[in-house]
Automatic annotation (TrEMBL):
InterPro entries: CheW, CheW-like_dom_sf, CheW-lke_dom. The lineage of its organism: Archaea, Methanobacteriati, Methanobacteriota, Stenosarchaea group, Halobacteria. It comes from the Archaea. This is Chemotaxis protein CheW. Residues 22-156 form the CheW-like domain. One of its GO terms (cellular component) is cytosol. Transmembrane segments: none annotated. It comes from Haloferax elongans ATCC BAA-1513.
């Protein structure tokens, strides 16, 4: 499998003091929408390869794969987030197992990976729905909305 470097959009701009703390997020496509996760949780991005099915696994687990000698569970966030889309997922975002309580190796199937961008806390709005710990917030960017997902809470 090929590991790609992630393009970054981190312009060296003067940030006003009131703009809030900045964090880098990885933007990716799930169906027709753009989502993002804190880059701190991401260890790498790989092409989707052959997955091995797991009997009696939850419906959101598409299978497992061997990634450098470690069995990695591959999760379909479209199932977790009730995204009705039959588009082909081509990439896998692999999360750093050390960031999770159970230290399980997991990855998310995504349609495309776009870029890493800096986001100010002030750009993040509360989600317009009832409280869901898996959604960190909504970011408005160039007239589009980006949904910020918490990988920690999304599969609990």
């Amino acid at each position: 499998m090929r590991q790609d470097s992630i393009t970054t959009d981190v312009a060296e701009e003067d940030v006003e003091e009131d703009s809030g703390k900045e964090v880098q997020v990885l933007e990716f496509k799930l169906g027709p929408e753009t989502y993002c996760v804190d880059i701190e949780y991401v260890s790498e991005i790989v092409d989707k390869g052959q997955l091995t099915g797991v009997p009696n696994a939850p419906n959101y687990v598409d299978g497992v794969m061997d990634l450098r000698g470690r069995t990695t569970s591959i999760i379909n966030p479209k199932t977790l987030l009730n995204i009705d889309d039959d588009g082909e997922s081509k990439r896998i975002v692999i999360f750093d197992p050390g960031k999770f309580e159970d230290e399980a190796a997991t990855g998310w199937l995504v349609d495309e990976v776009y870029q890493v961008v800096r986001v100010s806390e002030n750009e993040v709005e509360d989600p317009p729905m009832e409280k869901d710990d898996s959604i960190e917030g909504i970011i408005k960017r160039d007239g589009d909305l980006v949904v910020w997902i918490s990988p920690v809470h999304a599969i609990e």
